[in-house]
What does this fold into?
Amino acid sequence: MIVIVDYGMGNLGSILNMLKKVGAPAAKISSETKDIEQADKLILPGVGAFDTGMKRLRETRLIGLLNEKVLKARTPILGICLGMQLLTKISEEGELPGLGWIDAETVRFRFDPKQSRLKIPHMGWNTINIQREGTLFKDMYAEPRFYFVHSFHVVAHNPEDVLATTEYGYDFVSAIQHGHIMAAQFHPEKSHKFGMKLYKNFVENA
Amino acid sequence: MLMPRVMPCLLLKNGALVKTVKFRDPGYIGDPINAIRIYNEKEVDELIFLDISATIEKREPPYKVLSEIASECFMPVTYGGGVRDVETIRRILSLGIEKVAINSHAVDNPDFVHAAADKFGSSTIVVSIDVRRKLFDRYEVFIHSGRKGTGLDPVELAVKMERMGAGEILLNSIDRDGTQEGYDLELIKTVTSAVGVPVIACGGAGKIDDFRAAVKESGASACAAGSMVVYFGRNRAVLITFPEREKLEAVLS
It folds into this structure.
């Protein structure tokens, strides 16, 4: 069973719709301990602020269980958007430490939107440059593009963790994978056939 | 690279798709789900759904239709119409809709926009502004589906809404709605030069070059189209359609 972790942040319904669309055998939105314990794959979604996300994870008492599942049981996990940023150690957006499962940090876009023609948040469809196929980009369609909405992005400390980069002012990390831990800054659940392929890869190959 | 977004702006009335001309005479287009399936195939960037009678009939948003819409859309969706409080927004988002558009209730109660942006994040909150051109090149904001004048200037309202936390402005020209005569470029330019948030041009799109003009000449971040993506030809035969990506890229990139 795939569990979409519900900690009160973000659009979970559209991820569930996408999992159904790609034929995931069983998928569920849940914050229940017993569901997460039984999950053979996890999705950590999220829209919103870093500290709010970490606070909500704490309040729902899921951090210990998620550490156990991901670090000890090595359950594959896919972080989406804020869910990707929460996998890093720290964020310029907040004070609280992240989950720290990936050796990376989350930073603000390094340009001043007032000085630049580029707006923040980075919102809309952008192309990605796949650096490494990993699990998520196996047999991906040509010229992949995805829907983004974010003001912060991840900086990976280990270049080998980077799956894809995207250009917005400069190249930033738009997808990452460290073993069974993977994440995307964009919203594959809102990215047509490209997103379907990514979820299908996670469902079938992670 | 990041491409300016182009999105169908679809009107709902009693659960069906309709299209207006200058905010009047809603003509029947068809079933929203069939339209979405076609837009999925065409891989459109985003969709906007506006229920044009929810506020004036004091109805709630059509949650059942929205739930069906959300489960069929594999692109981001904005919904507007009868969005009057935080609880309504929470319920809309829980169905799998990404963004909500606030129009009449943003004018009546600007603090509501602030509360909504605070709770759900600015990138979830679109303020839609309907504008009519008045004498001597002045503009006025109208609410209640264009029926009620406010005396407000669209630029002042847009600036205020940005300050309240709106993440985007959907700027709709009532005079151009359904005419396919091109966007009101002057209106768009006055608003885009006053705010930092993305402005979606709406009202008047009739050909691909109109998108280019809105983006390149008037500074719009995105373009919405109505008649152009639901009608075909001079006699306005219903045809759900969308320009080819290559053609859009050629003028927008």
Residues 2-205 of chain A form a domain with the Rossmann fold fold (CATH 3.40.50.880).
